[in-house]
Design goal:
mainly beta; 28-stranded mixed sheet; eight-stranded parallel sheet; 6 helices; 23% strand; globular
Length: 734
């Protein structure tokens, strides 16, 4: 509570004037260890609060600052024994503005730690920070500051930690170090231990940065310069920073250079992250012998510099050295998206490993059980897109902490053996798609109760699978059994079992389905693929209602469907892909979803004409095909309202009338196929210099006149066919 000041206290300033007595007013009861809160510092905080714009409902700290509550309970504030504010944490307070160079914040002269991270100030960094000379910790990360970092920061000579990191997105204002540059900012910061400038545009040579840091911040432990637009090779002067334990240089352009082997000479190195750096060649084996390494990320160093140089590859290649088996402190390993080859070395001595990411390489050979023996902390194993072979070791599925197994797009073969019984298994993702696994799917696959995503597609599994079997997996949201040799029994609900899973994604293409599975109770389904089956009859009306309006993708193509139970109306508002091609659907064409991007009604038996207001429904559509139906009438001019259209295929119908001139002049259109119809007249319109056409097929119509000379503006044109018309200069070019 606030204590009432006695009248005599008002005379203290006068007394201090005459007798040189310096008195500090305090407020509140003493804290547990004798600390008090100074009244003037409380006023500075309240003034700061009054100038900031923040969300009261979302705030956990600022909302607690008021005169009716004790200063000890003010969120994010730490007071020292003399009543001064020494630490202020306003991170994640949903602050959206109201911060400038005159802020009362800069009068908190005893402040040592300041955290304003994860807010939305949307302003430049005020130079007033230079007044906070006692700061040892300054965190302005992800706070939406932009523009030049002020030179005043270099005057904060006691700083131990600086974090100005941002997550950069194209189009957003940059935070930058140009004038002053990095050299000028750190020249006086000799106490600095941790430097985080991720996403700050430094635009400097790697050599320049290394030399600046090595001469100014000799005690640096953590260096994080991810996505800083650094270029050129790194310099060995960095070795002067003998205390460096964490180096993060991801997403820069150190192209035309191999990984420097001097990085292996940091005796305390625990983290080395060099992803998306444009390095090439083989990784120095010394790197794999740094016994202190806990995190090693060399991912995505493939094809980075092809934009700059066509003369050399840009990726890591060769075998992963077997000496990696000796990195017993390793916690995180990421070599994904390179060209490493050979077998995977055993990592069973790295007992602390939580993540192994080796996807998108050229790794070969089997993955034997001894690879994983003892990895009780492993959470993620990602070996996708390699050439690994052999059978899957059952020991892999018994690791108690394993949550994700990603083994798709390899050459694994044999059966999917019985899962070992693991009490309280944490497994939530099992992706084995695009391998050569065979035989029936063992029922133990249905045991891991935590399983959220199961993808067994594009293998050689056979036998019959009861869809109701998946009722045991109550947490399952994604199921993909497509393109095997399976026969799916469509019955989903079995009363004796728990309710069926609430799917978000269900892919049962090429599963020999003869009827629709009853999905009418599915309230979260967004992606449904029942294509390439033998489903006949009508499309049920409930299919448009599943997901409670959240259905985004529906593929019923390559079936034997004949009609819709009722005309399409009240379609899901977010349905962007509707694929009904290669069925036997008849009657008028269904009205496309209002915001669809892909609509394919081709190879059916639709009749009648296109609705005159079709453009209203395909205004956002990129791909629209009605080819190979029996549609008559004219092409309505409203089709030109589809301003995003890139592919329009109306071929193999019975359209008559003329070609709308606005259609030819559509500068986004890349493929226009009107072949094999009854269109007449000439090719209208003038094609502009922004013409994007790659394919123009007007073959087998009743067109006459001449081909417009403006067609020469279509520089990307690869296919032009006007044959079998009555034109003066018929052309057929491929």
């Amino acid at each position: 509570m606030k204590i009432k000041l006695f009248p005599w206290l008002y005379f203290l300033p006068l007394c201090s004037f005459f007798f040189c007595i310096h008195v500090a007013l305090v407020s509140g009861d003493c804290l547990g260890d004798g600390r008090v809160c100074l009244e003037d510092e409380m006023m500075l905080l309240l003034q700061l609060k009054s100038t900031l714009k923040f969300n009261d409902a979302a705030s956990n700290k600022l909302v607690s600052w008021n005169q009716s509550t004790h200063c000890c309970s003010w969120g994010g504030v730490i007071w020292d024994a003399t009543g001064h504010v020494v630490s202020l944490d306003l991170s994640s307070e949903f602050i959206s503005g109201g911060f400038n160079g005159s802020s009362s914040l800069f009068n908190l002269q005893h402040l040592q730690r300041l955290n304003l991270a994860n807010n939305a100030f949307s302003s430049q960094i005020p130079p007033g920070f230079g007044k906070l000379g006692n700061l040892i910790y300054l965190n302005l990360s992800e706070a939406e500051f932009y523009g030049q970092i002020p030179i005043e920061i270099s005057g904060l000579t006691r700083l131990v930690t600086i974090d100005f990191s941002i997550l950069y997105f194209p189009g957003l204002p940059l935070l930058k170090l140009e004038s002053p540059n990095l050299i000028m900012m750190v020249q006086n910061l000799s106490e600095l231990r941790e430097l985080y400038l991720d996403g700050v545009n430094i635009s400097a040579q790697g050599k320049e940065c290394c030399q600046a840091l090595s001469s100014s911040v000799p005690n640096l432990h953590v260096l994080s310069l991810q996505s800083c637009d650094l270029s050129g090779p790194l310099d060995s002067s960095l070795l002067k920073l003998r205390s460096l334990s964490s180096i993060r240089l991801d997403d820069n352009n150190f192209s035309a250079a191999p990984v420097p082997d001097f990085l292996a000479n940091f005796s305390n190195l625990t983290q080395l992250r060099l992803s998306y750096c444009g390095f090439y060649g083989t990784v120095p084996e010394k790197i794999f012998q740094v016994r202190t390494l806990q995190i090693l990320d060399l991912s995505n160093n493939m094809d980075i510099t092809q934009l700059h140089s066509q003369s050399q590859d840009c990726d890591f290649r060769g075998a992963i050295p077997k000496v990696m088996a000796d990195l017993t402190q390793l916690v995180y390993l990421d070599f994904s998206n390179n060209k490493f080859s050979g077998s995977i070395p055993p990592l069973s001595l790295s007992k602390s490993l939580t993540g192994i990411y080796l996807s998108h390489n050229n790794l070969t050979g089997p993955i034997s059980s001894f690879h994983w023996d003892g990895l009780v902390n492993l959470v993620v194993l990602d070996l996708r897109n390699n050439a690994l072979n052999g059978s899957l070791p059952t020991q892999l599925f018994s690791l108690p902490s394993l949550q994700m197994i990603e083994l798709s797009n390899n050459h694994f073969s044999g059966p999917l053996s019985e899962f070992p019984v693991v009490p309280f298994s944490a497994l939530n993702t099992l992706d084995l798609n695009s391998n050569h696994l065979e035989r029936p799917i063992h029922e133990s696959v249905f045991h891991p109760q935590s399983l959220n995503m199961l993808d067994l597609s594009s293998n050689k599994f056979n036998g019959t699978v009861e869809l109701s079997s998946f009722q045991k997996l109550g947490n399952l949201t994604t199921l993909n059994l497509a393109y095997n040799n399976l026969s799916i029994n469509a019955g989903l609900a079995t009363p004796a079992l728990p309710p069926p899973p609430n799917f978000t994604t269900l892919k049962l293409a090429s599963c020999k389905l003869r009827t629709f599975p009853d999905l009418s109770t599915q309230s979260r389904l967004t992606y449904l693929d029942l294509s390439d089956n033998q489903i006949s009859g009508s499309i049920p009306s409930w299919i448009w209602k599943i997901g409670n309006g959240s259905l985004v993708h529906l593929n019923l193509s390559h079936n034997l469907l004949e009609d819709l139970q009722e005309p399409l109306s009240n379609l899901p508002p977010v349905l962007s892909t509707l694929d009904l091609r290669f069925n036997q659907l008849r009657g008028p064409i269904p009205t496309p979803p209002l915001y669809s991007g892909y609509v394919d009604y081709s190879n059916n038996r639709f009749t009648f004409s296109i609705p005159h207001d079709i453009g209203l429904y395909i205004s956002s559509t990129i791909f629209f095909s009605l080819s190979n139906n029996n549609i008559t009438g004219i092409i309505p001019k409203s089709i030109c309202d589809a301003s995003y259209l890139q592919v329009l295929d109306l071929s193999d119908n019975a359209f008559s009338g003329t070609i709308p001139s606005c259609l030819i002049q559509n500068e986004r259109l890349a493929v226009l196929n009107l072949g094999r119809n009854r269109l007449f007249g000439n090719i209208p319109g003038e094609l502009g210099h922004m013409c994007s056409l790659h394919t123009l097929d007007l073959n087998e119509n009743l067109l006459d006149g001449k081909i417009p000379k403006s067609l020469a503006n279509c520089e990307a044109l690869e296919v032009l066919s006007t044959a079998c018309n009555s034109m003066i200069d018929e052309i057929k070019i491929y």
